[in-house]
Structures are given as C-alpha cells and as structure tokens.
Amino acid sequence: GMRWKLFADLAERAGDDEIDVSIDDSEPTAGDALAALLADHPELEERVFTADGDLESHLNLLRNGENITDAGLATPVSDDDELALFPPVSGG
C-alpha cells in the first residue's frame, strides 16, 4: 500500500502522522490515494477540499518528497509510494 505523511493540524486532526492506505485501482492517482485517506479519516475532508470538491489551493502535495501540487490529484502513484500533505508553513 501507500503511506500518507500528515503534518501540522492535519496530523492533529487525524490523530496520526503516518497513515497507510491501499487502493484497488490498477492505475491509481494521488486523488485515489487521497480518497482512501479520507474514507478512513473523514474529519480531514473539510481541511483538504474546498466546498467545490477541489484540493485546497494552499496545501502542498508531495510524492516521494517531490512536490506534485501542480499536477495535483491526477498524478499517477504506485503501490509503495510515500505521499505527504502539509499546510503552508506560517512565517513569523
């Protein structure tokens, strides 16, 4: 399966900062992985999606440490990937 790493308030909300998900699809995307995460942790949905069902524009989405926010949820992923979601780092 894939592993999600969650940061900041996302991890606090989920109660965990690493969550494993499995996807049945033969050609899964980051969107499928996110759907699997939210199926397990529906409390994250309002932090991750806008009212229109789009990914919150300020969230950063990484696959194996590489920022995939531009391609976003359409990005292909494979079974042993590590995905990460983190909110913007607030400057001080």
What does this structure look like?
There is one protein chain. The protein is α+β, with helices and mostly antiparallel strands and 92 residues long. Helix content is 24%, strand content 22%. The chain is built from 3 helices and 5 strands, in the order βαβααβββ. The protein has helices at residues 8-14, 30-40, 45-48; strands at residues 2-6, 18-21, 60-63, 66-67, 82-86. Strands 2-1-5-3-4 form a 5-stranded mixed β-sheet. The chain is globular, with a radius of gyration of 12 Å. The model has no long low-confidence stretch (mean pLDDT 92).
Approximate shape: globular
Question: How big is the Rg?
Answer: 12 Å
Instruction: Please report the total strand number as a whole number.
Output: 5
Secondary structure: helix percent: 10-25%
Largest sheet: 5 strands, mixed
Question: What is the CA-CA span between the terminal residues?
Answer: 37 Å
What are the segments in which pLDDT stays under 50 over at least 5 consecutive residues? none
Strand content: 15-25%
Q: Mean pLDDT score, rounded?
A: 92
List keywords for this structure.
alpha+beta; 5 strands
Give me the secondary-structure topology.
Blueprint (H helix, E strand, L loop, with lengths): L1 E5 L1 H7 L3 E4 L8 H11 L4 H4 L11 E4 L2 E2 L14 E5 L6
Parallel strand pairs: 1-5
Antiparallel strand pairs: 1-2, 3-4, 3-5
